[in-house]
């Protein structure tokens, strides 16, 4: 059985990937720091304060989050992850994306060859429904289907 959610497209793209779900705020710098600084090829989440995804590989996953939190470097970290081909398959937010994370995703979409569609404003029901390991598909129109 599948369920669909309509969100706002921040960066377009079509993708199908396995869900990795965090119910806490996503600290972009803490989460990607080990992968970007020390070459972790699996890009495991380095944020020990995020028990939902700590030490789980993020590369190639449909990262399902409420929102980003933390450092003003968040946008640059997302851009760097994309530039180094260490990005998640997509980022899906139940709440509106913050301007710093959005800027990093938009710059990466325009200035790198990486694909990382981003959809926000999917609603709390989305985050309540999606579970780790489910398959998530994104259409061009911001329709996110979870099965």
Written account of the structure:
The protein has 147 residues and is an alpha/beta fold. Helix content is 27%, strand content 26%. The chain contains four helices and ten strands; from the N terminus they run ββββαββαβαβαββ. The protein has helices spanning 28-38, 74-83, 99-111, 124-129, and strands spanning 3-6, 8-11, 15-21, 26-27, 62-65, 68-69, 90-93, 118-120, 135-138, 143-146. The chain has an eight-stranded mixed β-sheet. The protein has a two-stranded parallel sheet with strand order 4-6. The mean pLDDT is 95.
What letter string, H or E per element, gives the SSE order? Answer: EEEEHEEHEHEHEE
Distance between the termini: 6 Å
| SSE-based structural type | alpha/beta
Question: How many individual helices?
Answer: 4
Number of strands: 10
Q: Tell me, briefly, the overall form.
A: globular
Main sheet: strand order: 1-10-9-3-5-7-8-2
Uncertain runs with pLDDT below 50, 5 residues or more? none
Classify the beta-strand content into a percent band. Answer: 25-35%
Q: What is the assembly state of the chains in this entry?
A: single chain
Note the main sheet.
Answer: 8 strands, mixed
Percent of residues in helical segments? 25-40%
Overall mean pLDDT stands at: 95
Write down the Rg: 13 Å
């Amino acid at each position: 059985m599948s369920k669909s959610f309509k969100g706002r497209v921040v960066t377009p793209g079509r993708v199908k990937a396995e869900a990795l779900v965090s119910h806490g705020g996503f600290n972009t710098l803490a989460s990607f720091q080990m992968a970007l600084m020390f070459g972790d090829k699996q890009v495991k989440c380095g944020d020990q304060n995020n028990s939902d995804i700590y030490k789980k590989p993020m590369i190639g996953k449909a990262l399902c989050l409420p929102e980003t939190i933390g450092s003003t470097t968040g946008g640059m970290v997302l851009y760097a992850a994309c530039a180094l081909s260490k990005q998640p398959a997509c980022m899906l937010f139940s709440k509106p994306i913050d301007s710093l994370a959005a800027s990093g995703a938009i710059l990466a979409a325009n200035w790198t060859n990486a694909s990382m569609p981003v959809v926000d404003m999917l609603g709390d029901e989305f985050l309540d429904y999606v579970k780790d390991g489910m398959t998530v598909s994104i259409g061009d129109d911001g329709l996110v289907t979870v099965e």
